[in-house]
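hey so i finaly got around to running the thing on Alpha-1,4 glucan phosphorylase from Manganibacter manganicus. pasting the sequence first so u can double check i didnt mess up the copy paste, my clipboard has been acting weird all day
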Amino acid sequence: MQSRSIQPLPENPEPQRLADEILQALRYRLGKDTTVATPHDWLTASIKVVRDRIIDHWMKGTKETYEQQEKRVYYLSLEFLIGRLMRDAFCNLGLMEAMREALASLDVDIDLIARLEPDAALGNGGLGRLAACFMESMATLDIPAHGYGIRYVNGMFRQEIQDGWQVELPETWLDHGNPWEFERRERSFEVGFCGFVESPSDGEGDAPGRHIWKPTERVLAVAYDTPVVGWRANRVNTLRLWSGMPVDPILLDKFNAGDHIGALAESNKADALSRVLYPADSHQAGQELRLRQEYFFSSASLQDILQRHVSQYGEIASLPDKAAIHLNDTHPAVAVPELMRLLMDEHDMPFALAWDMTRRTFAYTNHTLLPEALESWPVPLFERLLPRHMQIVYAINAAVLLEARQGGHFNDQQIANISLIQENGERRLRMGNLAFVGSHSVNGVSMLHTELMKETVFADLHRLYPDRINNKTNGITPRRWLLQCNPGLTTLAREAIGDAFLDDIAAIRALDPLADDATFREKFAAVKRQNKERLARLVAERLGIRIDPAALFDVQIKRIHEYKRQLLNILEAVALYDQIRSHPERDWVPRVKFLGGKAAPSYHNAKLIIKLANDVARVVNRDPAVRGLLKIVFVPNYNVSAAEILIPAADLSEQISTAGMEASGTGNMKFALNGALTIGTLDGANVEIREHVGPENIFIFGLTADEVAERRKGDAQSRATIEGSRELSQAIAAVSSGVFSPDDPSRYRELMNGLYQHDWFMVAADFEAYAAAQRDVDAKWRDSAAWYASAVRNVARVGWFSSDRTIREYAKDIWNVPV
Ligand code: 26W
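ok and heres what it spat out for the 3d tokens, dont ask me to read them lol
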């Protein structure tokens, strides 16, 4: 990390002083004294105390940015999976130990109250967590940045497992209020929907130019700000989340006329905008409410950004020099025509100038190549909700297609691929194409993913704009994913190599030679063991399953999706189970397999896979013939807080997606940084992780992305593949015939038949290679010196996968802001 942004830690306050402040907060903010304070009150009081300290840094940074006219970064994302914030703040402010002591002196256990903080689950998975890591890194690197999103009252659903099935319950993270946020009633903007467009009176006809949109529906977006603290409180940035409010809270006329429901209709509509996060991470929702949410937060954010700009600079033309607006996937892509509208209709700019400014301002990150995840909206729906934006989209499309035609290098099919409108079948607006043409930079999130983007979804747009696509391999914040979640390993590393890695995670490389030091390896193994014991205790307490911390802990935690191949993992476990029973004489490595993740409520196969994991777990875990050599644990309600406990305790990280389908993965990075070895395919960032850790410190198996593409082109060979593998056919037969579902023997028949019929996700095709790689894992585990040497090397060599590095690249190559 460059020294520019490093400042000394704020003076470490006396625990006694902090204790006094906590008591004051308890008394004057909560109106309680120690005799009646609940654990929740202690939590709130503690948060208020740190928040007060944050505010001074916050105001200082905001003032400097203003005075020095620094360029600001605006990160627009429909998801921010921030998790719990209290430890984050303690850690980054250097207050952890002082707060622990202060609370202890008041007879309060910091760990106990920390567990009461709700896990803010305003995201589905990787994309949302990446946004949270980026926010922290931008603050750490002293980049003036604002995150913009929606303050969902019910974020990601809470998952319960009942009789092995996933049940979705509402997440009520705001039940006790949110001590972090500041409501900014004065910062509210009107957002319109529907209505009609008045053409200009000066006879320009339909040509783009100044038009007046008369929406017939309006809502208010009200800002709620949460401070985001960087490492060592270098800088505090703002996460601004919008909440929907009615313009008129109650229509009194209607109420008085007896229409009590109608009187509240507007209020309910506004409320709906910020109520739920759509619980789908790889399937475009296609619902009107989703498009309304996208426009709601994009419009409010842009109005806010423009207002800030104009009030500071008194003009709008310098916007691209002072603001970099980032589109996190296509979810905010409607911001492109919205900025055009604001520039043309409210700031009187001609189309060409507005278009140039828009492209210089926006940048777009793509996070998925799955066709079913690429957003597109039926033209009639888009036109009804946003009639003015539809006109602008047509004008943009005309300009882009003209450019393509003039080049003369494109045939009709290629022109059709470039078009913002998909013409075959129902006419749909392609949000990926819109985001692409409206941005000066389009990036993928790993090297492989970026190359595939150029070859597949954006092949023709890439030919038209060959300099636009670039790669920014994802990263994770080492503060949360090492310092906070793994204090044992952090302390060990500090003792061994000093503190440099706290400020610059690349310096953790200094651990590398210690892989050959037996004493160090033992200490490292002892830390891992402690983390495993903590997890084992939790599993016993909460799930009633006894597991042996000496066993190999094998973990697959992520959204449940067929391409992520939890099914491959489970089938291999079934095969292993069979082997353990058939060959009791062999020297089996004791293993505990952890699986965790949520399935989209409408994703039938994903939910069935959860049930299968639980069915297999039930049978295996209580079979005395297994002698505890294999245990399977499905961890319910996987979220950021669960990850913080599971990852430090993992020996083996499962990153086994079908090659070419996982854009990057970020869990893979978190596990490696915490000393787990990866078993994985050459997919997403695994490819780069292998380059960094070295092929001898990772278990790579299976088809490559090219081989997958080849195989999909040819005849399905899956039946032959399955029949060629005794282990696989037996495992499939067992599952299919109801060995694990005696209450409903045909439960998995169709799921298993799918493997015979097309095997789109290459579960059968990769099975043998995966099983062989697992036996390599066993062999290495038996040589514990070799295992821990590799584990240490993983920790030492993955510093590059820090979101600080990623953000520096964005800052330099895309946003043009200094770091
Ligand atoms: C419209 C529905 C929808 C919602 C979210 C479609 C697609 C998404 C996201 C693109 C899903 C997502 O989280 N993608 C993940 O992004 C991570 C951060 O870049 C990557 O590491 C993961 O590989 C990718 O699956």
